[in-house]
Amino acid sequence: MELFRPINSYYDFENIKMVPEGDLITRNLSDMDWMYQDQEAVQELLKEDPQIYRYYNVDIPEEEGHLQHCISIINPGKVGNEYNMTKGHFHEIKGTAEIYYTIQGEGMLFMQSVTDGEPEFEALEMKKGTLSYVPPYWAHRTINTGEEPLAFIGIYPGEAGHVYGEIEAKGFMKLLIEKDGEPTIIDNPNYK
Amino acid sequence: MELFRPINSYYDFENIKMVPEGDLITRNLSDMDWMYQDQEAVQELLKEDPQIYRYYNVDIPEEEGHLQHCISIINPGKVGNEYNMTKGHFHEIKGTAEIYYTIQGEGMLFMQSVTDGEPEFEALEMKKGTLSYVPPYWAHRTINTGEEPLAFIGIYPGEAGHVYGEIEAKGFMKLLIEKDGEPTIIDNPNYK
């Protein structure tokens, strides 16, 4: 049998990136412009098309027994009154968990169940030192509510896979907006 | 189906512990006194029987799809010229990986392959911000080489399980000792 060798990756606190970079994926506003409610704000911001988030993937076999891992960074900012966020996804094998560890910054983790039953919603705070458990059968999205980049590690089973399309089309049942200067969870009026 | 709910745990930087504590397991010198080479130093230290390390386990089902996770803290110190370390283990299902993220402190991660072939050895450094990948089929032990507690997160597949007995009996093929004030890897003269 061929042994897979141990690997170290590092979080570079000064430059807010993973070293080595691995496979770097960036998401600008234009990659997810339809996901935000305030389309006037979107059109204005698209002139600059800011980067919303990026993630650095370590190259690990997509196989059972292995653990995929990456470091994600969501830039601070808002689109209208909605905070910068990831697209969100659930796993192709829905019964697989994910773990986040927040390295720095402040945010929120939105989750929505993906069973055959009625979807349920949960939210957890993220701040430096938080270890968040996303159990099997929960779609997940992360949101930066702070003034600084939100940096966190994501770890999930090698075979999990990703499904983005359904959340891209339906959205999450809740939104996180700034209201009176505070992050506030509201119902998503466009949730299908 | 019964949904498992999301959970947050926190690393308490001030008190060097996980909150909530979950299932706390402590290992004092007397739990692993035969693992160190210098038995005179062991006997002297056993009068106080210092805590070598402890870990805080989040209570997660031991099932495929789930991810076990814990925060471990190895106290600084040496037994003779050997640094404080964990007992070390491999997984009952050998083909399952583990990931460590170092929150604070300095140390080293020892690994030894557990295939049917000749065992191979690997070592990786651990320092704040290090994301270490222990692939399937590698036994692993962590060692504190610094002056402060070494705190890190460990994550592994729910079904992995643990085997301690073989390493308790055979040891690792290498030891980490302090030599001329520096951590130095040497062959283990008692490795069977």
UniProtKB/TrEMBL annotation, chains A, B:
Please indicate which superkingdom the organism of origin belongs to.
Bacteria
Enzyme class, top EC level, equals isomerase
Q: Which SUPFAM superfamilies match?
A: RmlC-like cupins
**Xref: Pfam families:** GPI
What GO biological process term is on the record, naming one?
glycolytic process
UniProt entry keywords in alphabetical sequence: Gluconeogenesis, Glycolysis, Isomerase, Metal-binding
- Look up the EC number in the record and give it: 5.3.1.9
Which InterPro entries has this protein been placed in?
G6P_isomerase_prok, GPI/OXD, RmlC-like_jellyroll, RmlC_Cupin_sf
Leader sequence segment: none
Gene Ontology terms: cellular component: cytoplasm
Belongs to which family?
A: Belongs to the archaeal-type GPI family.
- The name this protein carries in UniProt is glucose-6-phosphate isomerase
User: To which species is this protein native?
Assistant: Halonatronomonas betaini
Taxonomic placement: Bacteria, Bacillati, Bacillota, Clostridia, Halanaerobiales
